């Protein structure tokens, strides 16, 4: 009777372990993102640390993922989880030339 329960627990633990999200970093340095494009999987997290001595405001108006992290100074990091597949254009509201693309698979 307990033998079947043990198999269920092992299988459940195996599938749970396979569902963990990866975390990526896209820094902000010299009024630019540290990468122009990034490929991730749905459910993954991207952190946006500010390495510049001035504020940045990371946001996206892409239908796949709309977000606005607000203005934050050097040394702070904001994170975003990307749940749906598709292309996401990320920009900085303070520095209009800052732009990158995240391809969520």
From TrEMBL:
* One annotated GO molecular function: electron transfer activity
Pfam families per UniProt: Copper-bind
Looking at the record, the residues that make up the Blue (type 1) copper domain are 25-104
* SUPFAM superfamilies per UniProt: Cupredoxins
Keywords tagged on the record:
Copper, Metal-binding
Under the heading InterPro entries, the entry gives:
BlueCu_1, Cupredoxin, ET_Amicyanin, MauL
Please state what the protein is called.
Methylamine utilization protein
Please tell me the species this chain comes from. Answer: Leptospira ellisii
């Amino acid at each position: 009777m307990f033998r079947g329960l043990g198999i269920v627990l092992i299988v459940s633990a195996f599938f749970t372990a396979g569902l963990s999200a990866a975390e990526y970093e896209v820094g902000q340095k010299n009024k630019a993102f540290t990468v122009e494009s990034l490929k991730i999987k749905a459910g993954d997290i991207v952190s946006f640390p500010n390495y510049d001595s001035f504020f940045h405001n990371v946001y996206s108006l892409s239908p796949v993922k709309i977000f606005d992290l607000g203005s934050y100074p050097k040394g702070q990091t904001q994170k975003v989880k990307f749940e749906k597949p598709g292309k996401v254009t990320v920009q900085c509201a303070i520095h209009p030339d800052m732009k990158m693309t995240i391809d969520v698979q």
